[in-house]
Design a protein that fits this description.
It is a single chain. By secondary structure, the chain is mostly helical. It contains twelve helices and no strands. The chain starts with a helix and ends with a helix.
């Protein structure tokens, strides 16, 4: 038998197995043996064939609702939604599981997974971060309720990752104002970022760009506002050098400081009519 015939034979065997498998699945799906359906739903889930497990569990959710199997069906339904990548629905059913079966040994796992789903829905930093805040709240709620859980360390790590995403979002938003030469808005945004994340990894950049934005804001102001704004620049400079004496930005920061002093002296001379 040549290689072409061997390949054809293998292909025919695979098609036959596939058709047989489909026939068996449809028979189970259309049948009335609900215990078998549940066993097969779990089997398909364990084989990562969630697309087969879900239609069976859809039907079983209502059938076993008020029975002693209801809890387990609910559990697998949430897990299968997660397996299918529908994190909104999975999160919803994990939370419902905790509410409906608070005494279950699976409640802790489901509470943790509900927070994981919220995190999964959190987009990249440059998009709206509402789900990131919600995920942090879910993880903190979990740690408060289950302080001795084996998942506490994971929660702390994931909260740290989410906060890092929020920090970057806040920093990049402020930088955008700076690049657009909206220096007043940049100053406010940098201040807000530092207030919300005082230990941020971007602290040095934030404080320097805040100083620079203050200077450029003052420089582009009308004379009557310049004194106040150059004084704010000088204040920003002192705050910066107190925190980062060895910064690579030091020389440039000092230039803004010295220029601010000169501008204040000019304004003072001008106001005195000299």
């Amino acid at each position: 038998m040549n290689s072409k015939n061997i390949f054809s034979s293998i292909l025919l065997c695979l098609i036959a197995v596939f058709l047989l498998s489909c026939s068996e699945y449809n028979k189970i799906l259309k049948g009335s043996d609900y215990d078998l359906k549940f066993e097969k739903a779990k089997e398909y889930y364990e084989k990562n064939q969630c697309y087969r497990s879900l239609p069976l569990l859809d039907e079983l959710m209502s059938y076993f609702r008020m029975t002693n199997k209801g809890e387990e069906v609910y559990y697998y339904y949430a897990k299968t939604q997660y397996c299918m990548g529908d994190y909104y629905l999975a999160g919803y059913y994990y939370k419902r599981f905790v509410k409906n079966f608070p005494q279950s040994y699976r409640a802790e796992e489901c509470a943790f997974n509900a927070a994981i789903c919220m995190m999964r829905n959190s987009p990249d930093y440059y998009l709206d971060q509402s789900d990131s805040y919600k995920a942090i709240d879910e993880f903190q709620l979990f740690m408060s309720k289950y302080p001795n859980s084996v998942w506490v360390d994971s929660c702390n790590t994931l909260v740290k990752d989410l906060r890092s995403r929020l920090e970057k979002k806040s920093f990049e938003k402020a930088k955008l104002y700076y690049r657009m030469e909206k220096y007043r808005s940049a100053v406010i945004a940098f201040k807000s970022a530092l207030s919300e994340f005082p230990d941020t990894q971007y602290k040095e950049d934030i404080m320097f760009l805040s100083l620079k934005s203050n200077y450029l804001y003052a420089e582009n102001s009308v004379d009557v506002k310049k004194v106040e704004r150059f004084e704010e620049t000088i204040k920003s400079y002192h705050n910066f050098v107190d925190s980062f004496k060895n910064s690579s930005y030091y020389r440039e920061a000092e230039n803004y400081y010295l220029s601010s002093l000169k501008e204040l002296e000019k304004l003072k001379t001008k106001s005195n009519g000299i």
